[in-house]
Amino acid sequence: MSVPDDLLVPVTGVAVDLASADPPTLLDLRWRLTGPPGRLDYEAGHLPGAVFVDLDTELCGPPGAGGRHPLPDPAVLERVLRAAGVRGDRPVVVYDGGDGLAAARAWWTLRWAGHRRVRLLDGGYPAWAGSGRPVSTEPAAPAPGDITVRPGQLPVLDAAQAAGLAAEGVLLDVRAAARYRGEAEPIDPVAGHIPGAVNLPTPGYVEPDGRFPAAERLRGTFAGAGVRSGAPVGAYCGSGVTAAQAVLALHLAGRPDAALYVGSWSDWLTDPARPVATGADPGTPASGR
Questions:
Q1: What's the pTM?
Q2: Which are the catalytic amino acids?
Q3: pLDDT of 80 above 90
């Protein structure tokens, strides 16, 4: 099985597409969890014609009961994407600073919203700039887009469904092992994991430079975590960004049915009645919280 050709695109492919009669809409998603704002990177240099879109405020809903990066309101998302020039009949290429996290969440969000022609620039901005391709400091002024957001085109898990998947299928927790085991938690108020979830930290399915391994290697990695044909699979992380990258990797490995728990751990903890497991094994809930 080869890697699908509609998920990733190399620098050379983007260059060819931009010179074609059907050029893609370029979205710059550079972002860091703890700042500074990615817009500063965009202003310092970006792919010519690319539009900056802010992950926190434009592609996600306000943080709260649904976690730190919940699903956006469909009407708000439609306005954001149209303002960025996204059209239903034109391909989209998303990129970020190279780690692939924000770009993968953007890829997932557009696919969830019904846009089928969305690809991620393999290697992100560093790959483009490092190849000597032209960059621009001019802000883009796209013509308004016409995309109609049709939410629900990719599978989504809520907390109850995530718990059920952990019991009946494979729910991947892609956070660092210390967070999963309950030994450290730099962001959320409680460490640990959803009972039954299997830990597969990010380096297992993404190269250090943010690129994805070959499909066969991905399938082996996921098989090692218990992912098997015919059994449902999903992923979560701290707030649904890193896990979106895992879902993209699962797509590359031939599992387009992979579900995303968008709220992830930051949503799970909003209900103190939800159990928390600790230790290296999927395990059972720790007593008390």
A1: 0.95
A2: 237
A3: yes
